[in-house]
Write a structure and sequence with these properties.
single chain, 312 residues, three-stranded mixed sheet, 3 strands, globular
Length: 312
């Protein structure tokens, strides 16, 4: 315990490794943050304006975009502020808020991927009943559940973290994360580790099973379909598969860092690995969907051309 007192703020030590070019990093992260928010807002705006895009798949894309903005705001304002700061200090309250936002962002993202996988399964395996099965009411329920379930699950677990007192104020990260904070507790954390494992199973396993089931069924249908149907299925599934792969890579980076000794890996590489999970899905998802799905791409071009016409 530091000076015999309970810690009420923390030092994010990873920022010391970025001091040599702090303003270069600040500029790069600021541009990245603007691009993230802008690309997701454009996707939401295009889908909202164009009535032809008021379909279940596009509503689920909006859900991704909203969560991408939520995840970006959870990290980047704090990241940018600390880059121009010389203390790298974060209060306990701010640290706990960031933990809740980052973890719920990650959980909602995976749940939304599972929901999108189910939507693709219905579209390809039951095309004649698609609009009957994926009614507007069901779409709204699925989107609501993709937020409510992860937030409740992590919230119940997070109550245990809030009850801890902390004795070490140095965190080897550029942001707060639950695993790193709990390690600095003055109390025994073995019970919370077991609860955390159970929560992780509930957050990961059902969604993973849904994605695997959806693509197993899609693959089964495609094996007996015509070449044209196979090409159409591949085209409609590719953006979702890329989003899943992108998310899984980010999760693997974070799990490897949290559970294994990474001292042999350069510090800046570790910082990149920890940020991948929060940087790349929010920026790549709207780009993947915007460029690969023709209906969205056409509407974005129309929106850009319309703005150019009004400026003349």
């Amino acid at each position: 315990m530091e000076n015999g007192s309970v810690v009420t703020s923390f030092i994010l030590m990873a920022y010391t490794e970025l001091e040599d070019h702090r303003y270069v990093y600040f500029t790069g992260f600021l541009l990245l943050f603007i691009l993230m928010v802008l690309s997701n807002v454009i996707l939401i705006t295009v889908i909202y304006i164009e009535r032809g895009l008021h379909e279940p798949m596009y509503f689920f894309m909006c859900n991704f975009a909203v969560n991408g903005i939520y995840g970006s705001i959870s990290l980047f304002p704090s990241l940018l502020a600390h880059l121009v700061s010389h203390t790298y200090e974060i209060s306990l309250a701010a640290c706990l808020l960031q933990i809740f936002c980052i973890h719920t962002y990650g959980s909602v993202e995976f749940t939304a991927l599972a929901v999108m996988g189910y939507d693709r399964y219905v579209a390809i395996c039951h095309p004649l009943h698609y609009h009957q099965i994926m009614s507007l009411r069901k779409v709204c329920i699925l989107i609501a559940l993709s937020w409510i379930c992860p937030c409740i699950l992590f919230g119940l677990y997070f109550i245990l973290t809030i009850q801890h007192t902390f004795c070490d104020r140095f965190i080897e990260k550029v942001y707060c994360i639950n695993f790193e904070l709990v390690k600095r507790s003055c109390l025994d954390t073995s019970f919370q580790s077991k609860i955390g494992f159970v929560v992780t199973i509930f957050v990961v396993v059902p969604q993973l099973l849904m994605i695997l089931f959806s693509y197993a069924q899609i693959l089964r249908i495609c094996l007996y379909a015509s070449k044209e149907s196979q090409a159409k299925a591949l085209q409609t599934c590719t953006p979702h598969l890329l989003a899943v792969i992108n998310y899984v890579v980010g999760c693997l980076f974070e799990i490897i860092q949290s559970r294994f000794n990474m001292s042999h890996v350069p510090y800046k590489a570790r910082i990149f690995m920890s940020l991948y999970f929060l940087m790349f899905p929010p920026i790549f998802n709207p780009i993947i969907y915007g460029l690969s799905i023709q209906a969205i791409r056409v509407q974005i071009y129309k929106l850009c051309n319309c703005k150019q016409f009004h400026h003349r």
